[in-house]
Amino acid sequence: MDRQVQKTAARTGPAPRRAGKPLEFAGPAHHTVRRTAPSGGPDRRAARRWQTGAPGVTESTPYDAERSAFTRAALARLALSDTGVDLAGAASNLAITRFDDQTGPGGRVSEAAGLRAVADRLLTRAVVFERERGSSWEQIAHYLGTDPADARERFTPALDRWERAFEEPYRLDGTGRKRVPQLPTAAYDPETACRRLDLSVRLRTFVRDEHPVSGALRPGPPPGSEPPDHDLDGLVRRRSLAAFLHLLAEYARDFTATDWDAAAAHVRSTDEDDPGTWDTHPVRAASGSLRVRLANVTRDADLVRVVVTGATDAELGLRIDTLFGALGPCS
Fold it and tell me: Low complexity bias: where (predicted)?
């Protein structure tokens, strides 16, 4: 970005946005930025594209439907929550003293410096969220102990990146073949983030709320009206299904004598679009009874849909969710 563009960005900042603005995505048209100098006035976005030469993609993307259920302010809040959990986890690890003798000279300084980097990212996420919900630069600068103009200049690049991610959800990598999502992970796939963050916060804080993160970010049943069953739903690669089931039984301390290898093999006769064909297996866990339902994914022969019902224990739920991430289609 040249100096004139920087001055313009610092002076004007991003256009005000109303909190709760519905999420909008570009249609299926494919757009590639050409490497030609922008014409006209100081168009920051055009100048930046021209300088980088990085092609942008505005076609439809995975998880569009899931994202459309959230406002932009809610997506920004999810990204803030996700970074907060990362920082809490890293700080907790630094508190452990057992392995100090296995850490090389300066190792703990390295970890502390890493925490500071995460904290800086957390602050940026907080500013993006506050701008999305309508906070002024004066209000933000008050808590930063700085001038509003300085705060705006400091965080405008991050706000520009956030804004641009909705216009160009993907950027192509250096090879021109791989599409790289531009939104933070939690905002890119909000449903997975909600499930993981709800479980993580419940486990760390012991809060008596099934949805401590997602509950205030989207419409849902009022507190106390959730059904007694708690479903964890995900996709597992077919070749990893037996491993998933064995690990699930181990985590749940299953007392049944289910042959999980046979269960994984039998799933080939099921169809997720035909509820009557689903396989159902009980699991007698130490924390209560679970039920595992399995069915082939119609659109992809290499995937199996798995629904685990009854995992009310937060630690067990988080472990199951981790299994979905480790053995799912994106692993």
Answer: 7-17
State how many domains the chain has: 2
Measure the CA dihedral 31/32/36/42, to 10°: 50
Q: What is the rounded distance in angstroms from the CA atom of residue 329 to the CA atom of residue 300?
A: 10
Under the banding of pLDDT at 50, 70 and 90, the label for residue 1 is very low
Q: Are residues 172 and 251 in the same domain?
A: no
User: Which is nearest to 133 in space by CA: 28, 16, 250, 32?
Assistant: 16
- Reduced to 3 states (helix: H, G, I; strand: E, B; else coil), residue 246 is helix
Q: Which of 86, 76, 66, 60 is nearest to 181 (CA)?
A: 60
Task: Give tens-digit pLDDT for 191-221.
Answer: 889 988 988 887 777 667 778 898 888 755 5
Q: pLDDT, tens digit, for every residue of 232-263?
A: 888 899 999 999 999 988 888 877 788 999 99
Report pTM.
0.58
Name the domain boundary from 115, 148, 181.
Answer: 181
Q: How far apart are CA 43 and CA 23, in angstroms?
A: 24
